[in-house]
Structures are given as C-alpha cells and as structure tokens.
Design a protein that fits this description.
68% helix, 90 residues
Length: 90
Amino acid sequence: MAERARFEPRFTLVILYFFGALVVWGILLSAPEMMQAWNELPPEADPAEAGREAVRGALRGRMLTVALAAVISLGALIWLGVLPGLRRKD
C-alpha cells in the first residue's frame, strides 16, 4: 500500500533557524560595545538611542561575519541532528 504524503516544512524551518542564529550571533558580536556604551552613558542621555548607536557601530562591517557564523553554526547543528524538525529519519 502506498504511503500518504506528509507536509514537512523543512525549508521553512531552516530559514527560521537561520534568522534566529543571525540574531544570536549579532547580539554576541555587539554585546561588548553595548556594555561599554551602557557603562559610559551620561545620566541625561536616552539609553535606547545610545544602544542603537552602539549596535550600529559594532555591526558596521561585521554583518558578513555574522551571516557566515550563522551559516556555519546552523550547518553544524543540522549535521549533528540537534534541531527539532530537521532530524534525519533513518
């Protein structure tokens, strides 16, 4: 008897995991500059604006590094079979 076709959104999950990894790596690479900006913040300054400027400055020129780190870490996690929805079914 033929097997029923099942919907498995693997490609969609890979895209969602990639953007999640992109956010995580972006935060990790910009965290030191954000902490430095937080520590040097004058009392009258807007913390949200200072944080935005710190992140912009930290990630300027590093987005290729962030994307490459996201691709490599995502590939390793898929290869290891750690991510739900992307595990191999042998």
